[in-house]
VOC family protein (SAR92 clade bacterium), 262 residues
Amino acid sequence: MAPQFDHAVIFVSDLEKAIADFVGLGFDVVRGGSHGSTENALIIFANQTYLELLGVKPGWSGRLMKMMGILAILEWLSARRGTIFFRLIRWISGELGPVDWCVRVDNLTTMTSEWSAQGLDVLKTKEFSRKRPDGKIARWYLGGTKNGYLPILLEDITPMVERMPLLAAGRHPNGATELLQIGLRENDTTFAGNVLKKFITPYSSSNSKNNDVINIGGVEVNFGGINMATKMSLTLSYSGGESQNLDLDKTHGVAIKMVPRT
């Protein structure tokens, strides 16, 4: 399987409020379940991609904020140990809003081995799990590198639908159907694009003929410069007749544009 865009992650201070905000914008939001001290909710699209709303469980957030100094130490320790936790700890020790993105693969070990051979500082892959509200356990591996230009790599252990259920109605109440494009803010857009092309697209069978567009499993990835208003932007197809931009206060820092489905 060629690499597939899997999901983008938004870290929020209040998961219940974030769910209510996205429901208010016309999205179906599915509760994903718990991974220890954090829990999430998913906004799933018809092309097997999703937006993850991730928050600390109620009762943990106050203690967590008091432990920011400890988290800084943990980040250092994780970096020393060289595991993918180095990347994940930054999600909850940094700013709220969009924090990362993941690409789904079925050859994670092969890819990270080849990345290491090409000189990348590869982090050790770890197994993760999430207990769903129905009690089932979804399991997967995460791997990758410290390099923020590259996505986190995800390989499912349990069937993908246990981690990411299919969009039941095929579209959301607001008409949204598929994730078409993600934009990421980087200082050096040329360098970021070249890194992504070198280490991700050689494994992909769906590259665009346009050299300025990086296509990962049908989702276009673009890098915006420092003048980009938000750290992340998403373009969604929907059943409406005119393009519209969603309220940035309700999307928790991600600029979301809905465009008519063609």
